[in-house]
Design brief:
The chain is α/β, with parallel strands linked by helices and 155 residues long. It is built from five helices and five strands, in the order βαβαβαβαβα.
Length: 155
């Protein structure tokens, strides 16, 4: 059985480490693939470059997408995902520190499933990640044919 993975798209090493630590602290044992910019995320999702041989049936259960990314920003990544017939239904949670109202509006307009501002306080961030994990990896029913099965939160 394929355990549902998480694609974390985050360019800030400190935020990446916090997210990974929060996942671990919440016993979310799913594989986390990290992309450090928009190009790397798109290469993974579209199976290009270093990811050309990746199994197309094993898409992530959820994408945690930062907006302020180098090379290609998060909104452009989202726009390209939603334009692709095979990827348009993948759940995308914008996880950003941006407080710009226009980013929020554009994120939803482009098809984000959720928009979460990163809490500055680590305890609040851990709780936000716990809730994300429970919802997207356990409770949420993915559309048929996305190559994933029910998730696991374990010890």
């Amino acid at each position: 059985m394929h355990r549902r993975s998480i694609l974390l798209v985050e360019d800030n090493p400190d935020d990446e480490a916090l997210a990974l630590r929060a996942l671990k602290q919440n016993n979310i044992i799913n594989e986390v693939i990290v992309a450090h910019d928009g190009v790397e995320a798109l290469d993974y999702l579209f199976r290009r470059g270093a990811h050309a041989g990746r199994d197309a049936s094993k898409q992530p259960a959820v994408i945690l997408l930062d907006l302020k990314l180098p090379k290609i920003d998060g909104l452009e990544v989202l726009k390209l995902l939603r334009a692709d017939e095979h990827l348009k239904l993948l759940p995308v949670v914008i996880l950003t520190s941006s407080k710009e109202e226009q980013d929020l509006i554009n994120g939803y307009r482009l098809g984000a499933n959720s928009y979460i501002r990163k809490p500055v306080d680590f305890t609040k961030f851990v709780e936000a990640v716990r809730q994300l994990g429970v919802y997207w990896l356990v409770l949420n029913e993915p559309p048929p044919g996305n190559g994933t099965q029910q998730g696991k939160i374990g010890n």
